[in-house]
Amino acid sequence: MEGNALLLACERAVPEILGLSQRLVNMDSGTDDLPGLRRKAELLSDLFTEQGGSVRLLEAAEPRKGKWNLEAVFHGTGRARILILTHYDTVFPAGEAARRPFSCDGEKAFGPGVADMQTSIAMVLRALPMMRELEGCDYDTLTVFCNADEESGSLGSRDQIRALARKHDIALNMELSGAEGNLITVSGRGMANGRLRVRGRAAHSAAEPPAGVNAGLELAHQLLQLRFLSRPQIRTAVNATVGSFGSRPNVIPDTAEAVLNIRVADAAEFSRVENDIRAIIRNRLFAESEVSFDMDIAIMPYGNNPVTLELADRVRTMARAELGMELGYRHAIGGNDTSFSAECCPSLDGFGPGCVAMHTAEEYLPVRTVAPRLYLLLRMVQEVCRGGMVPLNRSSEEAEA
């Protein structure tokens, strides 16, 4: 099954993919909905088992215990070891599936998480039997990882992803491919959260306000000073997102704090931002106030390096020659699970379908993007199996390097 025959097979598979997507969309799996996540994990376990996979449910690590990630392993007689990353949690609360069930008008499919990324999982499920029929598509191991924790930062799954990536030759992430389904992701920003804390001195707000040191005013002063840290030209963004001060209306607040959300494309920017913040906050509004800052790096940036770009260019060449499709580079606005797999093996992102209005009630899937993205996933797996994309069977020393 080559060329146009494969594309026709992908087009014929779309109705079945949408049917699977409907089943998944119509089950709540919000990232904080533990019962809903468990129900969907059990459904996915059944679906991947039906495809011949050896399935394990892996409980997420602290602080995400109670969530269950799924690992489905398929064995063949080839050499390639391929990891496919997906996530089945969504940003939507329990009850959203009943309020907005799956619907499709032939061109657009709607429903909570329809494109991010329930349809991607449906594509993988349909791709599995197609791989068995595709010449040259024999692997040693193909592992599908379905994360229950991606929308809340993968704190409970990132070590599981790293461990799997060390055992595989390549990781392919089924995240979205742009609104038109015509992009391949070559980089994703890293993320850190910084916490700015202020300590002042309490006083009665009417009787003796001068005796106090207003932590709320000091916090406002600091946030105004820090508003110029972003560098859009290199995709660094620093934004105050959460803050608080005071607890009683008649007391000058003695504590205040704010969270700064920090996104970077270059890991060195984490240090630059942290050092700049520490220097800036020395300038205080009140000499008696105390201002401190600490930062926690949640996700390292990935991609936009020779390995990622070479893989992306091979997919772009394939799409141009075989589909007449010109793929552009996508630089993801935030990080995702590819950030963790890329620490351990060559990784490429953006094999899922198109997505419009992600994370909103208006999110929809452009149906026309499903077949060509399924085609590219199958051809990528085929070329990896043939040894044409990455070196196969890396040693354990290479994987750890």
At CATH level 2, the architecture of the largest domain is 3-Layer(aba) Sandwich
Low-pLDDT residue intervals, each spanning 5 or more residues: none
Average pLDDT for all residues: 94
Distance between the first and last residues' Cα: 38 Å
Strand numbers in spatial order across the main sheet? 1-2-6-3-7-17
How would you characterize the largest beta sheet?
A: 6 strands, mixed
What percent strand?
Answer: 15-25%
CATH class of the largest domain: Alpha Beta
Number of strands: 18
Rg value: 24 Å
Structural class designation: alpha+beta
Question: Mind sketching the topology for me?
Answer:
Layout: H1 3-25, H2 34-50, E1 54-59, E2 68-75, E3 81-87, H3 96-99, E4 103-104, E5 108-110, H4 114-133, E6 141-147, H5 158-166, E7 170-173, E8 183-188, E9 190-199, E10 203-204, H6 215-225, E11 237-245, E12 251-252, E13 255-264, H7 268-280, E14 290-299, E15 302-303, H8 306-323, E16 328-332, H9 338-341, E17 347-349, E18 364-366, H10 370-385, H11 396-400
Parallel strand pairs: 3-6, 3-7, 7-17, 8-16
Antiparallel strand pairs: 1-2, 2-6, 4-5, 5-18, 8-15, 9-13, 9-14, 10-12, 11-13
Helix pairs in contact: 1-4, 1-10, 4-10, 8-10
Overall description:
The chain has helices at residues 3-25, 34-50, 96-99, 114-133, 158-166, 215-225, 268-280, 306-323, 338-341, 370-385, 396-400, and strands spanning 54-59, 68-75, 81-87, 103-104, 108-110, 141-147, 170-173, 183-188, 190-199, 203-204, 237-245, 251-252, 255-264, 290-299, 302-303, 328-332, 347-349, 364-366. With 401 residues, the chain is of the alpha+beta class. The protein has two domains: 3-189 and 301-400, Zn peptidases (Aminopeptidase, 3-Layer(aba) Sandwich), CATH 3.40.630.10; 190-299, Alpha-Beta Plaits, CATH 3.30.70. Strands 1-2-6-3-7-17 form a six-stranded mixed β-sheet, sandwiched between helices. It has a four-stranded antiparallel β-sheet with strand order 11-13-9-14, with helices on one face. A hairpin with an 8-residue loop joins strand 1 and strand 2. Helix 1 packs across helix 4, helix 1 (3-25) crosses helix 10 and helix 8 (306-323) packs across helix 10. The two termini are 38 Å apart.
